[in-house]
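# nightly structure sweep
# worker-07 picked up a monomer target from the shared queue
# config: single-sequence mode, recycle default, output format = structure tokens
# input follows
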Amino acid sequence: MKARNLAADPRVVVHLESAEDVLIVHGAVEDLGHPAAVPAVVAALAAKYTSPQDRQYRPDHDPDFDVVYAVRPRSALAWRLADYAVSQRRWTALS
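# output follows
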């Protein structure tokens, strides 16, 4: 995902890695600016990702990390493979 591509077309699809528990989110990204502009987001990520091996993924780890994006969902699909017939869910944002 490159910043110039997102600036040109902010539409994204995000999904979990799992093929057993599936979540697919369609939406658009919003540039929230430099991590210093969104300290609550940086603090929430720091609280969630506390192990030393996770630190490299936090925006406050790299001084060259210059943007934080938020995904604004428009629709989502979810299901569990083990009980696909009863676990399917679809969500669409109200316009």
